Amino acid sequence: MVYIILGKGFEEAEALVPCDLLRRAGIDVRFAGIGGTEITGSRGITLRADCVAEETALSDAEMLVLPGGLGGVASIRASKAVLSAVRKVYDQGRFVAAICAAPTVLAQLGITDGKNATCYPGMEDEMGSAKMQDAPAVRDGKIITGRAAGAAFDFALALITALRGQDAAQKVAADIVYCG
User: Is residue 69 within 8 Å of 13, Cβ to Cβ?
Assistant: First the structure.
């Protein structure tokens, strides 16, 4: 199971594109809303989450995905349950992924220390000792980071590659006529 964490003010493209592409790859994905199931993103689009993050066994996930959006990231930082789950999933050797401003949450938890990563341009100072890369998506072991909304497709394909292999990601890219 992959959970995409939604907090009020999340960046819609960074949540919807990965969900869509992961599902095209046959991966079970659920939106987990912080504090409820009706979560409004940074562009005023309200999504109905599949479950409430604080009431879900997030730490059992195969992968946790953190979309950006400053409001969404603030919501994640304010949720002890979500932060604990991210730490536990990573410590258990499973995947944690974050895009845009959300990699700073991984940095806050010390997860990206000494690892290759990317984040929204201008937020590099919040990435601790991560080795910053100039790329749309970066994988370092069980950590996957993405630059911003414009990299949502690259980020999603990196998630598929991590979970199901390069062939699965290439099939989805071909199916959607990915031009990246």
Answer: no
pTM (2 d.p.): 0.98
Please count the CA atoms within 13 angstroms of the CA of 20 that sit on its side-chain side: 13
- Look up 100 and say whether it is catalytic: yes
Residue whose C-alpha is closest to residue 17's, from 146, 162, 165:
146
In one letter, which amino acid is 136? P
46 vs 16: CA distance, rounded Å = 12
List, for residues 102-161, the tens digit of each pLDDT value. 999 999 999 999 999 999 999 999 999 999 999 999 999 999 999 999 999 999 999 999
Residues 6+ apart with CB under 8 A from 4: 15, 18, 19, 29, 30, 31, 32, 65, 67
- Residue in 19, 100, 119, 179 annotated catalytic: 100
